[in-house]
Amino acid sequence: MRAKAPRIRPAGSVAGVSHDGAVGGASGQPSLMAAYLGVICDLDGVVYRGPDAIPYAVSALNDVSRLRPLCFATNNASRTPGEVATQLRSLGLTVEDAAVVTSAQAGAQLLAAELPSGSAVLAVGGPGVPAALAAVGLVVTREPEQARAVLQGWGRDVRVDDLARAAVAIAHGARWVATNTDRTLPTPQGLVPGNGTLVSAVAEATGREPEVVGKPHAPLYLAAAERLAAAPELLLAVGDRLDTDIIGATAVGADSLWVLGGVDGFLSLVGSPARPTYAAHDLRALLDPPVRVERLDPASWACGDVRLSIVSGRVSAAADGVTIDMSAVPGNQLAALAATVVLDLRGQSASYDLAVSLATEFDRVLGHSAGVNRHRVEDTRPQ
User: Fold this and answer.
1) Catalytic residue among 44, 182, 243, 344
2) pTM above 0.85, yes or no
3) Which of 43, 159, 237, 329 could disulfide-pair with 74, CB 3.0 to 4.6 Å?
4) Do 244 and 354 fall into the same domain?
5) Is residue 44 among the annotated active site residues?
6) Confidence band, pLDDT 50/70/90 cuts, at residue 23
7) Residue 220: is its pLDDT beyond 60?
8) CA triplet 97, 114, 130: central angle to 5 degrees?
9) Which residues pair with 141 in a beta bridge?
10) One domain for residues 238 and 329
């Protein structure tokens, strides 16, 4: 009897399966998203990368939105929800401004609940930060001595002077809230410093740490769940970052779909404590039935008609008993298999090096090159 892999319920897309909504393709089984009352979707690295849509994202999400409510929750605080929604519509998505929730909004709501209306708050970041503060009745100031609080988010034009003003306000006793602490931001040119690097500079100058509202912390996900009028455990969270999207979903009790369009690949998964509920190459997985990966024995796993086996430290693929090139396995099906293999192997010192080697190969085959470097992975080796 085949032993079922207990650690992940991967989502896959099998060749030839159509995407017809709540019922998943030729099998007639319910789609992955049919099990949930709504979907919370990340943006950078999931829907788009820079100005360009990620393949299959727009068509898949438009199909999803006809069957379940969608909310887009982003740690990127630089733009207003209206600006984000405008970009999404320009890519072909059918979306209203109210379907977008930003970490700047989550931070502003937190401060509005604590401070009297009209309180002065120093805003650091792009236009989304002061707009969120004004929307909840707080007054934006550039004078650090007047600020009751500081709301710090990412912005393309943030300068050293902005960080200095924040540091002075915090030194004078201002409440400090950071929208997020993502170390990097994916762009078409590669990863660039994210808000976490700017927050670190202020923390170094002040000796203080902010309260953080963006993923993986609860406030942003809870704001998105409120927007969808459903408890987090009844929702599916979709994201590309293990340390924010996936760990944050787990923290609020939501299931998660990890996709490979952004920062993290399988090498990242080796070194992360995250355990996504599902894994997929792209968002078409939302419209297909969730597929199960079974561990057949210590060195082989099966997903549908595809089997991955490890022989002498190398992985090989077979379909219906015939050896095939791993690149011939449909992307979502291979992502499901690869995630389970890595999760099964990463936690044991004896198989850790094998997990790193296989993760590198999975990233290569699936075209992912933005994962963490080897040094960060080595820091997580089991003792």
Assistant:
1) 44
2) yes
3) 43
4) yes
5) yes
6) very low
7) yes
8) 40
9) 122
10) yes
